[in-house]
Amino acid sequence: MSEVREFQIFVDGLWITPNKNQAIDCVNPSNGEVFAKIAKADSDDTQKAIDAARKSFESGAWANLSIKERGKCLVAIAKLIRGNAKELSELESKACGKTIKHTTFIDVPTAADTFEYFGRIEKELQDRKLNINAPVDSKICYEPVGVVGAISAWNYPLIFFGWKVAPALIAGNSIVYKPSSVASVAVMRLIEIIQDVLPKGVLNVVTGSSEAGSAIAESKDIDMLTFTGGTETGRKVMQAASLNTKRLCLELGGKSPNIVFADCDIDAALGGAMSAIFMNQGQMCTAGSRLLLEDKIYDEFVEKLKGKASSLKIGDALDYAIEFGPLASKAHRDSVIKFIEQGKKEGAKLVCGGNVPIEKGAFLEPTIFTDVDNQMTIAQEEIFGPVLSVIKFSGEDQAIEIANDSKYGLVAMIWTKDIEKIDRVSKRLRCGTVWINTYGGFYNEAPFGGYKQSGFGRELGVEGLLEYVQVKHICLDKTPGGKSLAASWF
């Protein structure tokens, strides 16, 4: 048994014991062993963090620095992430169950790249002069919102930390951050690594309970809330945030269509379909969990897909040879199994997986259903696991109709060699991102977010950056004595 690490909460530059001195066990889903403990913060602990963030913001210790000076700190954080990549990758894998290859080549580098990208942004936040046909000097200024509350999900802890914290910091805000209690160990270790980079109170982190999350959402001292998680929780967050009409950015659920036309590159589409549902064991809001196959290639594609899925090597996520790790927890696996049973009851055909291959840990086989009707539960509800619903379509119009027949609208994928079809279909899909002949292309320069019940607001890119600023218009009257028409109406 390896050493069990313990993490307290981080408030005003200090590691402090929570009010009730309680902790939560962090279990490695590959073997069921406790490998860390995180503090369980309550509402009083959270208020201390909020007070610290407010104090730091009002002092101007961070907000009054130049964009370039703040950027240097973000670039320093990126360097520290890269310098501790091996440890962070292993902790992320232990916490989430995602393979060590995934955390090594995707999660940790992505988090570092995000801090560096926003750390090098400057002109996007500079004052902008307006050309107005009137005797005025007019400009737009970008100012920090104030205190940002950030609550993130458990499936990509380090990446979400970068997506939320980096743009909030470069804009000059102070932050109260709450990672998921299920998988926050890598984030807490990262806080230890970077704690001396920022002024005291600029970044505060509370862990371990829904009470802490509710306190952030409800607080009248929080000016903005950014949340990544389930749609049902997102609705509650919206209600809580209404207490002081705080700004919201919500990245919620998805039930994304992966549309494969007969004129596609079959091998490329097969690889894309595998990644879209079995990467990170399907625990992705962007999972291509509805595979829409054109009737002309339906049988051929399903057979090849079954072969690929059933051959995935399942096991301990820390083994570099493993392709498919456990789900995040046994409780989550049990919830996924309930969806599998519901799919069977509603008449879908289970053609691959659905079983628990290893008793120890939280493993579940890659699962494929065919003969799925789009109104079935497994085609409408976000399962957040390695369960694929295969739906047959005939023609472009039917594909679009099925794809849009969902309460969600996060991402979609199209596989075809027809350029004109790409243009037609992508314009008609009601979602925030359309990937064409690829899956999972996230870039710091490109905004990400959803339509419908997948949320609103954007992360990444200039659009994501501007979520974290107030826009102020400053207008100077240049007429002699200030006697413009507007100023001398009476």
**How big is the Rg?**
24 Å
> Biggest β-sheet: count, sense, barrel?
7 strands, mixed
Strand fraction? 15-25%
CATH topology of the largest domain: Aldehyde Dehydrogenase, Chain A, domain 1
CATH second-level architecture of the largest domain: 3-Layer(aba) Sandwich
Shape call: globular
CATH level-4 homologous superfamily of the largest domain: Aldehyde Dehydrogenase, Chain A, domain 1
Mean pLDDT: 96
In angstroms, what separates the terminal alpha carbons? 82 Å
Provide structural commentary.
This protein is α/β, with parallel strands linked by helices. It folds into two domains: 5-252 and 454-473, Aldehyde Dehydrogenase, Chain A, domain 1, CATH 3.40.605.10; 257-436, 3-Layer(aba) Sandwich (Aldehyde Dehydrogenase, Chain A, domain 2), CATH 3.40.309. The protein has 15 helices and 23 strands. It has helices at 43-59, 67-83, 85-96, 100-119, 157-170, 185-194, 210-218, 231-241, 266-278, 298-310, 330-345, 377-380, 396-404, 419-428, 461-465; strands at residues 5-7, 9-11, 14-16, 23-28, 33-39, 128-130, 136-144, 147-151, 174-178, 203-205, 224-228, 247-251, 257-260, 290-294, 349-352, 367-370, 387-393, 408-409, 411-415, 433-436, 451-452, 455-456, 469-477. The strands form six sheets. It has a seven-stranded mixed sheet with strand order 15-16-17-14-13-19-20, with helices on both faces. A six-stranded mixed sheet has the order 10-9-8-11-12-22, sandwiched between helices. It has a three-stranded mixed sheet with strand order 1-5-4, with helices on one face. The longest helix has 20 residues, at 100-119.
